[in-house]
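EI: anyone free to look at a 171-residue chain?
SC: sure, send it
EI:
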Amino acid sequence: GIDYLLKPIEAQDLLRSVAKFKTLTGTRAEVLPDLSQLIDRIAQRTPKYKERFLVKVGTKLLPLLTSDIAYFTSSEGITELTTREGRRYPIDQPLDDLEQQLDPAAFYRVNRATIARVSAISVVHQHFQGKLKVVLSPAWPLETMVSREKARAFKEWMGDVRSEEGSSGDQ
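SC: here you go
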């Protein structure tokens, strides 16, 4: 192994790894295939997820890293984000838009009213009729349920998510 690249692979990281390979092995540039097409394809396929949100606090705008957000909720037409410390801030985006902007390895649309970060899910209870009850941390006062139809996909996601330490899309 010459280098270690985490997904999503960034073009600059790949180029740096190839340069390191060439230096360590003494390989001439003409021996290696042209990697520009490969790098272009990787760059096109690598989705860019939102890394920070700007929230309004009085007359100020506060930048919050996505990695500091525990979950997003929507109730009575108001969307809020809740930080890992339990602070809540209203935001001007519906959950449908947020779902497209967030890394699916870190966040999951639990139901129509909630998008949760994997680390904010403290317990999942089996519920009647195949539903799941999700307990969020910090605590959310409303019951958070996963429908019977989404329960299997949710459990697969919970079992498949990579550790947030290794996730680079929201750090």
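EI: Confidence is low (pLDDT under 50) at residues 162-171.
SC: 👍
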